[in-house]
Amino acid sequence: MSPALASLTAAPPSLAGATRAEIARALAEIGAPERELRMRAGQLWHWIYHRGAREFSAMRNIARPVLDALGERYTLARPEIVAEQVSADGTRKWLLRMASAYPGDRGAEIEAVYIPETARGTLCVSSQVGCTLNCTFCHTGTQAWARNLTAAEIVGQVLVARDRLGDFPGGTPPTDGLVPSGEGVRAVSNVVFMGMGEPLYNFGNVREAIAILTDGDGLSLSKRRVTVSTSGVAPELARLGAECGTMLAVSLHATNDALRNTLVPLNKKYPIKQLLQACRDYPGASNARRITFEYVMLKGVNDSPAEAKALVRLLAGLPAKINLIPFNPWPGSPYECSDWEAIERFSDIVFAAGYASPVRTPRGRDILAACGQLKSQTERLRARARLMLEENLAVGLD
Ligand code: SAH
Ligand code: SF4
Prior knowledge:
Distance between the termini: 36 Å
Order of helices and strands: HHHHEEEEEEHEHEHEHHEHEHH
Radius of gyration: 22 Å
Helix content: 25-40%
Bound molecules: S-adenosyl-L-homocysteine, iron/sulfur cluster
Number of strands: 11
Strand order of the largest sheet: 1-2-3-4-7-8-9-10-11
Shape: elongated
């Protein structure tokens, strides 16, 4: 960040979440010699992403004057954890406040959700503050649009999670809930872009964040363990495959355009045929690297046996997995979750056609952390009065 820009922000800028080039620029600004920039940037990168350094002074192999000069202009601050909730099933939800972008700005608030399993853990990150797309079954879609997250803010969600889960060398895992552990087990082993926002409407920043997450010297996650979920921005799929190479999940939810137009309004722009063609062309998709099709189960809306058969026909020839997601209701939501028998019937048809069709077990429902339930605190507070009356749900973060 240029000194002029830095002087406009409320707090010194953070290098946690920075790209190599940004770190090299910061080093140049403090007067590090040109010939050392690459090497020094590599060292800083290692401390930030491999070791989880939170203070420059921890970087023992870097000369003191360099660290002091960095410390005068920069920090290694992460997004702030405003609140944490731990579900009975171990799912953890954090309300995170981003650093303020200008003096007086309170900072955007977003949520990130951590879903532990015995030998792996998935972090669900947000890519935008709110979402512009208004899918009718999604809580996030009802929230006012605020802005895109920067690459650093996306990476920052992973750093915060790893800090909190004791997932950096020497870290201490929390004792209040499941955190996978064991030789070679990483608490955050997978990252999915399934939090707030449409990642392909923030492509540049998402790509930059993925580059840091999957760089062997960065956060070092395999590209197969990073999944980008899209509501169907068909023209961006080619770039996603070519430039990021991550796994792809597509939120399909309907088998005909009339219904999908109402559930996922973006379908009016990129209808099913165009979307599926982009999936067929997705670079790197193969039977070993299948595309996941997400299908939210809405009672009486898209859950009939005829629709299960139509889904199978639609995906014929595509290297696909089908992920049936029981609808997670939210206060005022216009849908209900399909009955269990309907989900089973649907799943059986899909399975008989040769698709693995795991039904996604809802996680963290008690803390409104399940898919589509993410919404920032400010919004929730406003909704709370109505919510208590209508739903009698306990969702407070306090
Ligand atoms: N915007 C992207 C990624 C975020 S949404 C997308 O739409 O794919 C992540 C997933 O949660 C999507 O499959 C979305 O359709 C699903 N989802 C949204 N609201 C939901 C709800 N109330 N219940 C179950 N799944 C929901
Ligand atoms: Fe946005 Fe995805 Fe929610 Fe649709 S489902 S409103 S694209 S976050």
